[in-house]
Fold each of these.
Amino acid sequence: MKINFEEMRSPEIGEFIKNNGMVIVPIGACEVHGRHLPVITDTKMAYSASIDAARKMEGKIPVSVLPAVWFGYSVAILKNWPGTITIRPKVLIDLLYNICQSLIDMGVDKILIVNGHGNNPGVIDVVVRSIGDDFKVFCGMTNIFDCWDREYVRQNRKSKPGGIGHACEIETS
């Protein structure tokens, strides 16, 4: 099976669904990340983590990764710098809801949303709860910044406590 959902043909997706496959939906943001990082950093991190997770699951369960949702909700202050594209929370809720609904409509009942952006969790929580209520499909959700190896970070960080966050040494490295 192909890991990248968009590379599968319709019959392959049908087989993937028959085999009880899980779809990962990565989401990030397009926003300023200081002068040193591209504005797509959060999205790239969520997508890379999703692909890595899918590869680790190969041979265990079928897993496919959707193309990343490359924009998210960003707070207004980030509009002060060029590069930030923000989506109103209700629009982002509708977008993610429709993506999940489309997957459910085709027969997918295992969905994991992988978030790489600090302002998205509240929006994603509403989507996950609404999908569960409406379809009895209970999507998983994780934030990549909750998955960091804390001991590795503690041993290898260069910044003082409090120095890891937006456009920080973790996002940079």
Note: The mean pLDDT is 89.
Amino acid sequence: MKKEKVKKPENPLKDLIIYGSIILAIILVRTFIVTPVRVNGESMYPTLNNKEIMLLNKWDYKFNDIKRFDIVVVNANGKKIIKRVIGLPGETLKYENGTLYIDGQEKEEPYLKEKTEDFNIKDLGYDKIPNNCYFVIGDNRDNSKDSRIIGCVKKSQIKGKTSLVVLPIKKAGHRN
């Protein structure tokens, strides 16, 4: 029986550099560009379900404005929450008879399955949404701790935009 020779790596430093570069690239991508985020709770139901895993795009808002109806991840008192942007800086906002009014104009919310209780931005002590702040709310209005409770969120609290569910695979895809 012949004994097989085990080949030693020709240059272990080269392998170390390759693997180190891969690890560094993953860390940089996850830190600055995209990272997974988990839906916790039912506040965005039926758009998002509890325990779904989404990709958080941290890069988009470096070049683009936050838009009405974007789904965002917010750092609220050290906890990451997923909500929908409804009101933008400088706007008036109210819900009356289940209808959203922005600056007095009716806005449709096609993703909603239930009516929203009456609410006015003045209930938070503002005439308008403050500069550099946003009004965010969950799609499951009866089960959401959002700007109606925590107040408007600063742009610096918004960690990025998310719309792509990756797990579970059978429910993967874009959400709006």
Note: Residues 50 and 175 are 14 Å apart (CA to CA).
Amino acid sequence: NGRGRSAVTEDAVYFDFHTHILPGADHGSRGAEDTAAEMRELYELGAGIAVATPHFYPARTNIEKFRAVRNAALVRFEKIRQPFWCPTCVGAEVAVCQSLERMPELDELCIDGTSVILLEMPFARWMDSILDTVAAIRDAGFTPVFAHLDRYEPEAAEALFALGMKGQLNLSALGTRNPWKRKRLLGWIDGRSIVAVGSDIHTSSVRDDRAETERGISALGEERLEYLRHSTADLLRGAKIYDFRPKKSDG
């Protein structure tokens, strides 16, 4: 039954900043059954809050269409909600392309209620123009956080850190059996360049890394988990939260 910890925020093991849990919003969940399984897994892992971050690809869609799909998925999500599901915020995982900062209504892709935007960098070598784009997004008043920086060349991630940028790591990467990689990733956390972690959970037909995710949580240790809960809570200050738990009685 996994870690079996309460999903109540104050008893959280971690806050999950990167998930694909909205039914039908992207390939992360095909529908209610996938979403229910994902939310059960997050509960068992001890997630005290989840940020739903469906993919946004500027070359494939626009914000109006994306918003319609995400809103419809959120309606389905609320209809199937269960009391034990952890509180949830809604944003997007935004693929970075040149001149993204010029896109109208870019704020619609932020975590609802905040200026925080989860950006996914290209997997090809980054051109200077891409770095200029993310700098322009920050200069426009957004708070960029870079998704799964464990998936890129370490030197590329560290170039972002040198610009004062902050990132998110996938818990499964922290569960690596490569001690050198784990040491480097933990060093990024200790250096405060990483401000969030996430499961990046998808339906298991896309990825199934539960064991690595559990090892990653263990590898962090309580002191780092405490830091990450606080740093992620800071990012989510003011965010709209969908909380399905029963309300505590006053008496």
Note: Helices lie at 32-45, 63-79, 128-139, 154-162, 171-174, 179-190, 210-235.
Amino acid sequence: LLQIPLIHQIIRKGLKIGIITAHKQSLTDRHLAGVGIQSYPLAIIGMDDAEEFTAVFIEGKTTINTEKCRKEMISAARRLIALHPDVGAIVLECTNMPPYAKDIQEVTGLPVFDVVTMINYGYAVISRKRFN
């Protein structure tokens, strides 16, 4: 969520930022206000109806069917775009979602941000490479 101000600056004016979260009701206005994004144009959906994702990441199932979870993530991304065709980028809010970022990018054609992109920003600024 901390990346949303940056994303807002780099996508075309008038587009929304889509957020896929684990449980939509758990991502409240208080969370958005806490990082100062409550007034940004957002479209939020949850993985609430995703059987495998919910079983593993919400209910604590100890094994995962990665292909089923991948299909659920792709389905959520497609649903987000179907409901909000004016989405210009997607944020995967849950830290369990980055393994599916490439799949989501491939089916939507949109930039996809997650905790890994944020970590990579931080690492890049403290570990600069020399240009020779």
Note: Helices lie at 4-10, 29-34, 51-57, 66-83, 101-108, 115-126.
